[in-house]
Amino acid sequence: MSDHLIDLVDISKSFDGQLVLDEMNLYIRENEFVTLLGPSGCGKTTTLRIIGGFETPDTGKVLFNGADITGLPAYKRQLNTVFQRYALFPHLTIAENIAFGLKIKKKSRDYIRDKIKYSLKLVNLEGYEDRMPDSLSGGQQQRIAIARAIVNEPKVLLLDEPLGALDLKLRQEMQYELIRLKNEIGITFIYVTHDQEEALTMSDTIVVMNQGYIQQIGTPEAIYNEPENAFVADFIGDSNILDGIMIQDRLVEILGTRMACVDAGFGLNKPVDVVIRPEDVELTGPGEGAMDGVVTSVIFKGVHYEMEVEANGFEWLVQSTHMHEVGAHVGLRVEPDNIQIMNKPESEDEKAVELDV
User: Fold this and answer.
1) Confidence at residue 273, expressed as pLDDT on a 0 to 100 scale
2) Residue 200: pLDDT above 90?
3) Pairing outcome for strands 18-29 and 4-15
4) Which of 57, 112, 198, 251 has a 20 to 30 Å separation from 21 between CA atoms?
């Protein structure tokens, strides 16, 4: 018996002759928090809308618990959607907004009353039953939209950039609320965002997309620490991305300097892409690292200093709790296991998919 709740099989979709999804295959497990992450136009919202039944794929199938639901309308699917615009009815009270779907299903008055109380407790808004939507803050309205969705007991909750309209502090608070909710009610969350930090914070699994293709699927740790290509490395967090030559197993040449690494199996003298995260670059005294450079810029970021260092003709991004002044001469050192080696794209088409943000 498969543990897949949702299977997307060879899904393709075009709008006005423009291919948005190209033979996508993706499965989602029960009780998983899956985030579809990518730049605008990458196909993530179209994927969500196909799962929700708001769009029909040109080719391919959507399976739910093994059953084909590709042609099933949205209202017959065991899922609910929360959009960025909360879509609360302004003329109805909070209780009436939450009860809307239950009344359509002809649930009893007592059942509806109990469900309203339960859902408001879940989103920490007990006692708000008689308030009107326009009396609530953006964060409170978003919680009511979520309460209205979960009150219908969907197997899956689809969230399309639901925190995009909130300010930073509220957005961070709501991220933790969503994690708590997911753990408490045990349903599957499928979340769309272009915010890398949001994806890293909340997800069990991240699906990185670009130009209608899935670039990488993995845990937040795997996506960040082991990006499969330069696009993923560049899109998730800050990176130094350099051309390199894999001299032999565990030895790479970067900017004319040979450095030890832990990767193998790339062959001899093979051109590769090299990714080094800015927090993995250690600044030393001149002559003490793999290469020397000069600090050209310093910005204080609160948790760390962000510095740019010119070394061997490359502008390195470095993040450190130790500040070096502009003009300081420094050495750069990187531990072998912090150097990520990746194959270069073999064709221009592949390169467009991998590198075009």
Assistant:
1) 95
2) yes
3) antiparallel
4) 198
Q: What are phi and psi of 51, to 5 degrees?
A: -65, -40
Domain residues for 304?
A: 282-333
Q: pTM of the entire structure?
A: 0.88
Average pLDDT of the segment spanning 280-284 = 98
Domain shared by 56 and 205, yes or no: yes
Helix (H, G, I), strand (E, B) or coil at 43: coil
Q: Which residue has the tokens 């998983």?
A: 32
DSSP string, 215-283: EEEE-HHHHHHS-SSHHHHHHSS--EEEEEEEEETTEEEETTEEEE-S---S-SSEEEEEEE-GGGPEE
Whole-number Å distance between alpha carbons of 307 and 278: 9
pLDDT tens sequence across 60-113: 999 999 999 999 999 899 998 887 676 789 999 999 999 998 898 889 999 999
Beta carbons within 10 angstroms of residue 55's beta carbon: 18
DSSP strand pairing (291-300 vs 329-333): antiparallel
| Inside any domain, residue 44 | yes
Q: CA gyration radius for the chain?
A: 24
Whether residues 165 and 47 fall in one domain? yes
Q: Give residue for tokens 């408001």.
A: 120
Q: What CATH number does the domain containing 322 carry?
A: 2.40.50.140
- Give the Cα separation of 330 and 324 in Å (integer): 8
